[in-house]
Each structure stands twice: as C-alpha cells, then as structure tokens.
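Proteins fold reproducibly. Look at a sample protein:
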Amino acid sequence: MKHSALIPRICLLSLCSAVLCGTACAEVRTMTLQQAVALALLQNPDVLLARLDEQKARDEITIVHDPFAPKIFAGSGAAYTYGYPSAIDGAAPSIAQARATMSLFNRPQHYLEAQAKESAHGAEFDTARRQEEVVYRVATLFLNIEQTTHSLEAAGRRIESLTRVRDLTGQRVAEGRELPLESKKATLAVLRAQQQLESLRLDLESGETSLALAVGLGAADRVQPAAAERPPVTIPDSEQASIEQALANSNELKSLQSSIDGKMLELKSHRSAWMPKVDLIAQYALFGKYNYADYFQKFQTNNAELGASIQFPLLVGHRSSAEAAQADADIAKFHIEAARTRERISADTRAAYNNLKRTEAAREVAHADLDVAREELTILLAQMDEGRVTLASVEAARATEDEKWLAYYETQRAAETARLNILRETGMLQASLK
C-alpha cells in the first residue's frame, strides 16, 4: 500500500485511541454551535465507526482486484528421486524455481471488483447519513442546554419573587390580616418553584454531559454553549420545495440506489460464469543433471516457460443460476425498500412542516401571554406607587411573568428544533451550521 494511503488510516486510528482514553482528563469546555458540530464530525464515535466501515469497503476493492495483480513465487524443488523424476506439487524437481501468475481475463471477477467499488461508494453515503444524525443530535442538545440555561435564570428570579411573597404573606398572617392558609399556599409555591429549579439544574447537567458525549468527549466532561449571537437558520420557501430537496439529497436513497447497482453487478457476475478465463503463466526452473541424466537423451539446465492458461467452462452446475436468482430477489427487495423510503421521506418532511407551523403558533401565543404578564406587572408597579396595591401583589405578578418566560423559552426551543428537523430532512443541516 502506498504511504499516502496510510495517512488517513493512521489519523483515524489515532482519533479512535483518543476517544477511548478521553476520560483520563475530564474538563468543562465552552463552545459555539459551529465548534461543537466541527468537533463531533472529527471524533464522534458513531462517525469514527462509519469511517472505519468505509475504509474496510475501500480495502475490499484491493482484495477483489487481487487476481488481476501479478504474483511471483520463488523457491526450490530440489528432491532425491528414485526412478523416473516425478513432479513435485505440479513442477518438476529443480534446484531453484520461480513462477509468476496473473489473471488476464476473468469476467465474473471483473464484475465483483466493480461491485466492490460500488459498495465503497455506498459506504460514503452511509457515513454522510451518520454525520447528519450526529449533527442533528449535537444541534438539538445545544438548543436544549441554551433553553435550560435561560429557564434556570427565570426560575431563580421566580423563586426570589415567591420568597418575598411568602415573607409578606407571613407578616400579614401574623398581623391577622390574612388566613394562615394563605401562608401555607405561599410556602407551597416556593417549594414547587425550588423543585422546578432543582429539576432544571439536573437537566442542565445531564444535557451538558450528553453534549460532551455527542462531540466525542468522555462521560466526565461537560460542554457549555458559548454566549454568542447565532443567525437563524433558513429553510426552503415552501413545503413542496422541501420535499423535492429531501428526495434529491437523501443519503438513504442514494445508499439504496448504490446497493441496487452493486447487486446488478453481482447478478452480471453470476450470469457470466460460463465465459472463458485467461491467466498469464510464467515459470523458470534450474534443473539438476542427477535427476534427469538417466531418463532423457538431452539435458538443459535453464528452463523457462511463458504462456496463457485458457479455461472454457463446459458444465458449471446450478450454483451460479441459483446465486443469480438470489441477487435478482435482493434487487427487487431494494426497489421496494427505495419506494417505501421515498414515500416515508415525503411524509416525514410534510410532518416536519406541520410541526413547525404548530410550534411557531405556540411560540406566538406564549409571546403574547408574556406581553400581557409584563404589561400587568407595569400597571401593578404604577398602582403600588399610588398606594393602591401591596408589594405582595407586585411580587406575585413578577413570579407570574417569570413563569411566562419559562413557557416562552420552551416554545422558542421547540420552534428552533422544528426548523433544524426540516433542514435534516432536506439534507441541508450540516451545510447550514458550518
């Protein structure tokens, strides 16, 4: 193998080793979405496994091409003979001998080599599909962490407001202006908010660990999103345009088509079993006189042979026809699978657009609800300055506003995830996040 061909394999194996020992130095890293995607494409275990399968498929081409490569063998066939000098392993006894063989014409093997090349081509589509899945997982985890971080801030403000409400309510209960039940309700609201805050903290820790694993780091590492402005991703103009792009860019369909082409070549290989095969034969032997002097009138020390071995299959049996029938059945199966995949991609893309409409409508409602809560808080602040409402009412309104913020962040994340899903279906996600 050439030295240049060894370089990507060595790099790939080095990355695999880095992944396996990545837990030795745990740390917290801060990344942008583009940096996280780039790192995942470099060292995510799923991507590395797909690239190793792709490398194996390329090596299979060399293996199948082997009969067409010249082979030279050298050695000795020296032996003691008693009586007529019989052949040793197909060659006459000799002091030294060398043989060269090479297939010149072998139509079935030629088709198998073409099939191996097509399989390697299909492995590239499988790797690209695995990369798309990893990019989508990294992007959704990134958005989830961002949403959880914003929600934690809003939940912290909400606890502060509810705590002030609890304290003020306790004072009013002590003064006899509120029932003790109101104090219990205020305490319960604080406990619920604290439980929600703790749940968000656990979700954030789990999300950062999951993102670290997705980019190829260890389970003890954590990845935090960098505070950077990110332009909104753009999607195709219409649902129909998205479906057309999804069908045109689908690596799954391309992989299936590659499998069909590969099986067609295998079918041709089986059907060409009756064709002749031509091999190049070259041989040299250095004979010893003691083996031949008593049996041959003329002796020659150096002996060489160059020619072609031609084989005409006369009766090949039923195996080739049966294997051809199996390949034909596999082709039919791949066609059915391709048709089903095409319909599924269309349906999934249409469903992704419907989900985007649903999430964007929910985001608009949550935004309007937040605007109402903020305006109500503004009115209560003005009324408190006039002495018309209590501070407890204002703090309760603050807590309600923060609750609306939590709902808005959730709908915002759902809408962005829906847009990412459309880009994944259309095969444009990886390019959009570079």
Q: What stands out?
A: Strands lie at 28-31, 71-75, 96-106, 222-225, 277-286, 302-311. The chain has one domain: 26-432. The first strand starts at residue 28 and ends at 31.
